[in-house]
Design a protein that fits this description.
CATH class: Mainly Alpha
CATH superfamily: Ribosomal protein L20, C-terminal domain
CATH topology: c-terminal domain of poly(a) binding protein
Largest sheet: none
Distance between the termini: 94 Å
Order of helices and strands: HHHHH
Length: 118
């Protein structure tokens, strides 16, 4: 049986890993062994942080809506309850954008939702 030489395959694999870690610091983008480990961690972090980004964005949207609604004299929970009970179909991202870029429109929504004071 003929002997299999793997130099071409090894070089191709090494080049693929080293090109994937181009922006990494230090010797992590030059030495294959460190580069492979760095790439493994980077891919794991990117997968986890895609989910974390969604969580952080939602938290930021809620914070913005809460701040804008308190300026208009209502709490976040009362605003969201009123929006649901009045059948207004706006998600948190849209409300957050309205609160930042269109405060007059956001104030109108709050006035429709705000309970009557006794």
């Amino acid at each position: 049986m003929a002997r299999v030489k793997t130099s071409v395959t090894t070089r191709k694999r090494h080049k693929a890993v080293l090109s994937a870690v181009k922006g990494h610091r230090g010797s992590r983008n030059r030495r294959y062994r460190l580069a492979r480990e760095s790439l493994t961690h980077a891919l794991a972090y990117s997968t986890a942080h895609r989910r974390l980004k969604k969580r952080q964005n939602r938290s930021l949207q809620i914070t913005r809506i809460n701040a804008a609604s308190r300026i208009n004299g209502i709490s976040y929970s009362q605003l969201m309850y009123g929006i649901k009970s009045n059948g207004i179909n706006l998600d948190r991202k849209s409300l957050s954008d309205l609160a930042i870029y269109e405060p007059e429109v956001f104030s109108e929504i709050v006035s429709k939702v705000k309970p009557v004071q006794k």
